Amino acid sequence: MSTFDDNASQPPRIDDIGVTLPAPADFSIALAEGFARRIGTLARRGGATTDAVKWAARGAFAASRATDEGHVCVPLTVLARRFDATSAEVRAALFASGMASDASQSSAALRPLVIDGQGRLYLARYFDYERRLARSLVMHAGVGAASGEPEGDVDANANANAASLNERLLRYFGPPKDDEVDWQRVAAVMALSGHLTIVSGGPGTGKTTTVVGVLACLLDAHADLRIALAAPTGKAAQRMQEALLARAGDLPPELAARLPQTSYTLHRLLGSGPGGRFRHHRDNPLPYDVVVIDEASMIDVAMAAHLLDAIAPRTRLVMLGDKDQLAAVEAGAVFAELSARPSFTAAGLQRIADALGIARTRLDQALPDVSRGDDGYDDAFFALDASDDPASASGAASPLADRVVWLERNYRFGLDSPIGRLSLAIRSGSANAALDVLVTDPDTVCAAALHEDTHTTLAERTVARLAAGFAPYADALATALAEDTPDPLPLFDALNRFRILCATRSGPRGVDQVNTLMAAQVRRAAGVTLAVGAHWFAGRPVMVTRNDYALGLFNGDIGIALPGAGGALRVYFRTGDGSLRAVSPAALPPHDTAFALTVHKSQGSEFEHAVLMLPAVFSRVLSRELVYTAITRARERVEVIGARGVLAQAIATPTQRDSGLAARIAEAWRGEER
């Protein structure tokens, strides 16, 4: 129904709010319409006019749908244009309905809808998340600064402190490799000198190396340091732990032994409880001196608000991610917003230059170019500030000044390599430059290729090409099954050599269908049959899709099915220390076959050879960030299967998520929010 009248005897009028009835299968639309109906009913019961009731329902529906599509809010201009009205008329009608409040209200006093001073319409819960997050960020970024108290390792003797920092950087990062400014060391100085550090870098830019160096410097200076490692998903947390321990061998044994031996999902770190409540919050903060969050680009605005609430004022928070990757599945693109434009104060630049032992002018010349005009941010808010005082009366400094750093030098694949050049072209939105990198000759084996297949279903030659990618896995499977006790470890290595990344889940080019095709191809090549009455077979790789803390399996974990003792299939998982554990297929949490993954599920992974599977026609799920994320999963070879036009349109379509986080941060910084 779209009448927003709780009298079921009345016939539905689907034109009351200008939306169509949802299809039964579209649950999110049904929820949005139910919410809109309820808001309309409440407005009418409160005595609002018919017109105000209608606008309250329209606003509720639009704001609810916006969050389902990844936005935190919806501009009133969009809502007004949809119904041939002005923003002023919409604003007045929403306030007249009694269902909307302005942004000045306390959290407890907010009505279901909120309109901020810049004309953004929110669901109250999401406005509160955004405002809480902004306040926490500003407070954390300013710890020690507002009162003139020295931050972190900065002491009264600036020269002695710079010398101490320089000594530790040399000890744990080694001598500089060349004359270029080392932004890993810059990030380290920032993390050692403050309580909030945001590090953005693509795959292979050394984020983990930076964190290991920072932790070593801190462990060297503090005898009893409590450190927590976390990430949005269990698999990402495990990969972070593995990467950290892999680099621990470069540290003195006494420091390596003090590195954290476990990592957490964010839900587990915060102590997830019933009703979505967390054990750790502002009144019961996390008991750590340092918290490091990896894959922060996957964090939505709600989780970011809960996380920052739980960080104690004196805790160092280091957030690592890639601003150019896909944003969170839920509402918000927090990391991309926070890392959009690094800015520095003069004092901050001098502190970094002194710690690195280089001239300030050399650092100035190496600063990243952030003079972009198409990202929707307030240039004055993110401007490079020349003031020594970030809290100066001019207000020109960003509250995130000296808190954000970009790592752009790639140590996995050089930026002048085909994959490097392709990733740069995609990031810049240059479809022509990207297509120029891709080789289209089907008979040429190269580092970056485009294979045009414009059929609705995949052509036979495409299926054969994909199957050839899994040939080493099929060979390893056949070898393993020839043994009395199959060894899963070679299969994990073979599986990570090649993976198909799909833009969609359903359809002939989606994950489900591609997995069905590849499972049949691998079974045929390895001579494997299906288990009786099931879709299980020896060699089936699976990805866990839901955390199971009792089993110690997490969203993103990869397992491989092989016969165990007695011949029954078991699913083997490789642990962080390289050992194996086996689980019965019947005991597994929800899971999918994993010859092909969605691009979203591939975040944080890397493969020698990756294939991006595009749909036959352009789809709304395609974006520049999706293509970039898929391309940068590959270490040595990447292929794109699809039409040139579809790829070009995807590269030309950056993700646009409506948010007011920058405005909330500016308000908190100016002290407008209390």
Secondary-structure map:
Elements: H1 27-45, H2 50-68, E1 74-75, H3 76-82, H4 87-96, E2 100-102, E3 113-115, E4 120-123, H5 124-141, H6 158-173, H7 183-193, E5 196-201, H8 207-221, E6 227-231, H9 234-247, H10 253-256, E7 264-265, H11 266-270, E8 290-293, H12 301-309, E9 316-321, H13 334-338, H14 346-356, H15 360-366, E10 404-407, H16 418-427, H17 431-437, E11 448-451, H18 460-469, H19 471-481, H20 489-495, E12 498-502, H21 511-526, E13 541-544, E14 558-563, E15 569-574, E16 580-583, E17 591-593, E18 596-598, H22 599-602, E19 607-613, H23 624-631, E20 634-641, H24 644-651, H25 661-670
Parallel strand pairs: 2-3, 5-9, 5-10, 6-7, 6-8, 8-9, 11-20, 12-18, 12-19, 19-20
Antiparallel strand pairs: 1-4, 3-4, 13-14, 13-17, 14-15, 15-16
Helix pairs in contact: 1-2, 2-4, 3-4, 5-12, 5-25, 6-8, 6-14, 7-8, 7-14, 8-9, 14-15, 16-17, 16-23, 17-24, 19-20, 19-21
What does the model show?
This protein is of the alpha/beta class and 674 residues long. It has 25 helices and 20 strands. The strands form four sheets. It has a six-stranded parallel sheet. Strands 11-20-19-12-18 form a five-stranded parallel sheet, with helices on both faces. A five-stranded antiparallel sheet has the order 16-15-14-13-17. Helix 5 packs across helix 12 (301-309). It is globular, with a radius of gyration of 27 Å. It starts with 26 loop residues before the first helix and ends with a helix. The model is unreliable at 1-25, 144-157 and 372-396 (pLDDT under 50).
